[in-house]
Amino acid sequence: MRRLYFASRFRKAGTSDVRQAFEKESGRSLEAFFEGWINGSGTPQVAVSWTPGRDAAAPAVALRIEQRGKVFEFPVTATLRYGTGQVQNVQVVVRDRVSEFSLPVTGDVKEVTLNRDGLTPLDIVSR
Fold first, then answer.
1. Looking at the structure, do residues 32 and 70 belong to the same domain, yes or no?
2. Measured between alpha carbons, how far is 107 from 75 in angstroms, rounded to an integer?
3. What's the pLDDT at 1?
4. The CATH number of the domain where 90 resides is what?
5. 45-52/60-68 β-pairing
6. Total of domains in the chain
7. Co-location of 86 and 105 in the same domain
8. What is the Cα–Cα distance from 119 to 24, expressed in whole angstroms?
9. How far apart are CA 46 and CA 97, in angstroms?
10. What is the CB neighbour count within 10 angstroms for residue 86?
């Protein structure tokens, strides 16, 4: 933001200027993000499912997030609740119609919820 501010000082900066600056800093294309969140409308609609991993040597939970309708790119927090009551938050970045993640775990997971913190605007729909 500081570089963008000083580069654009005393002149009008548009959305494309902001996107270019963010892409330069991140080192990756942000086209999908800007198309969904800045130039588009609506919020992602997602169906979420999870299953315990089967590899005892590397315990994990398989998390599957399926976008319905328009595909967005967004970060979201997955919350794992263990049988002990302990909670672990893991941030994932959803980029595709179907995104699958293997989340390492430290015990018996009883529940996985998405966006419990409410920080990502999205609608969770049933499968």
1. no
2. 25
3. 83
4. 2.60.40
5. antiparallel
6. 2
7. yes
8. 25
9. 9
10. 11
Closest CA to 86 of 51, 110, 69: 110
Query: Beta strand 98-104 with 74-82: parallel, antiparallel or unpaired?
Result: unpaired
29 lies in which domain range? 2-37
Using alpha carbons, select from 115, 112, 64 the residue that is nearest to residue 88.
112
Residue pLDDT tens, the chain, 127 long: 888 888 888 889 899 999 999 999 999 999 888 988 888 888 999 999 999 977 778 899 999 999 999 999 999 999 999 999 999 999 999 999 999 999 999 999 999 999 999 999 999 998 6
For the record, the structure tokens of 91 come out as: 């941030």
Phi, psi (deg, nearest 5) at residue 25: -70, -40
Query: Is the same domain home to 57 and 117?
Result: yes
Beta bridge mates, 48: 65
DSSP letters spanning 95-117: -SSEEEEEEE-SS-EEEEEESTT
Instruction: Mark whether 84 and 119 lie in a shared domain.
Output: yes
